[in-house]
Design brief:
By secondary structure, the protein is mainly α. The chain contains 7 helices and no strands. α5 (91-106) packs antiparallel against α6. The longest helix is centred in the N-terminal third of the chain and has 28 residues, at 21-48.
Length: 145
């Protein structure tokens, strides 16, 4: 039996679970907002403790990255992502999850050839294209100003 691309597309649509996009959008918005609010509360707390904005921001980032890595290690981040979807991709926590999950998955292969070689498997392209884009934007900005 020859399957045409159109037949395959219809079979795929029929086999895929239907998504309730309204609930998914609301959950992503709520969880992403909650992560951002947590970051803002931490920043405000450090400000009220007398930290300057730079130091408070650094500690806020450290806490969010560490909490995300810990949640990934315990398997909680994946459970949250199953329900919240894109809401867990808030940049700093999502990036920490991507790096942590790669490291956890490859630890059985050893520190050098496993963790060291594969830690940036998921996050590597983000770093690469982010750095390239920032150089291009920086050059454009320099030339225009």
């Amino acid at each position: 039996m020859n399957i045409t691309p159109q037949m395959y597309s219809r079979m795929s649509e029929n086999a895929s679970p239907k998504s309730n996009y309204r609930v998914n959008i609301a959950a992503a918005f709520a969880v992403g907002g909650l992560i951002c609010v947590t970051g803002q509360l931490l920043l405000d707390m450090f400000g009220s403790l007398g930290f300057d904005k730079t130091t408070g921001s650094a500690w806020t980032s450290i806490i969010l990255v560490a909490a995300s890595a810990a949640c990934t290690g315990f398997g909680w981040y994946q459970k949250l992502a199953r329900h919240a979807g894109a809401g867990t991709l808030v940049p700093i926590t999502g990036f920490s999850n991507a790096v942590s999950s790669s490291a956890i998955e490859s630890q059985s292969e050893g520190l050098v050839l496993g963790v060291g070689a594969k830690i940036f498997t998921i996050a590597g392209p983000v770093i690469l294209y982010g750095c390239c884009a920032s150089v291009i934007y920086g050059v454009i900005y320099f030339l225009l100003h």
